[in-house]
Amino acid sequence: MTSTFPDISISTDRLVLRPFEAQDVPALAEMMSDELVTAWTSVPHPYTTAHARDWALREAPAERTSGRGIVFAVTEFLTHRLVGCVHLHHTDWRALSAEVGYVVAPWARGEGYACESVLAVAEWLFNDQKFERLELRTAADNTASQQVAQKTGCISEGVLRNAWIGRGRTGDGGWTELRSDLIIWSLLPEDLDELREQPAGDPGYAAAFRDWS
């Protein structure tokens, strides 16, 4: 019998992580059409409103009900504006492990939202769901994503050579597929204990940990 995650929301001081709703579709379509999202993810390009609607209202809920994982729309607590998405996938219910992916809207970058939302999900996954491992994979050239992994306490475990296909710009302004190495990171419950003892580098740490202390 397949296990599933509960249908829940997670709150921090600045953010609410919740299931996607129909009202998120326009902002989701805009966010996923960003150039960096196109470059570093496998989402369709161009990313249309139809793609956003299908993801928000069909594919994302199915991730949870099928037992594959869970998808959170990340919104600002005060404005309710969509700032990103966090996706737990490749869930192994026997090993109690999952892989995390995330996207942040262009206008919301630099505010620590990726770190804050990943930490909140990790705390919930370890404390409430009793999981033992969270995995993160970053393309070798995606330094911004690697910084999120480092700031959230992840440990680099090695490299999968030539394992990822990203996208890069061509001379005529189009896109072409580019192969890249993948860096494997992991986060365990004890890693979060060590992270709490370190000075907070941005407001995301305190905001995420305060709700789970």
From TrEMBL:
<dbReference type="GO" id="GO:1990189">
    <property type="term" value="F:protein N-terminal-serine acetyltransferase activity"/>
</dbReference>
<dbReference type="InterPro" id="IPR051908">
    <property type="entry name" value="Ribosomal_N-acetyltransferase"/>
</dbReference>
<dbReference type="GO" id="GO:0008999">
    <property type="term" value="F:protein-N-terminal-alanine acetyltransferase activity"/>
</dbReference>
<feature type="domain" description="N-acetyltransferase">
    <location>
        <begin position="15"/>
        <end position="190"/>
    </location>
</feature>
<dbReference type="GO" id="GO:0005737">
    <property type="term" value="C:cytoplasm"/>
</dbReference>
<protein>
    <submittedName>
        <fullName>N-acetyltransferase</fullName>
    </submittedName>
</protein>
<dbReference type="Pfam" id="PF13302">
    <property type="entry name" value="Acetyltransf_3"/>
</dbReference>
<dbReference type="InterPro" id="IPR000182">
    <property type="entry name" value="GNAT_dom"/>
</dbReference>
<keyword id="KW-0808">Transferase</keyword>
<dbReference type="InterPro" id="IPR016181">
    <property type="entry name" value="Acyl_CoA_acyltransferase"/>
</dbReference>
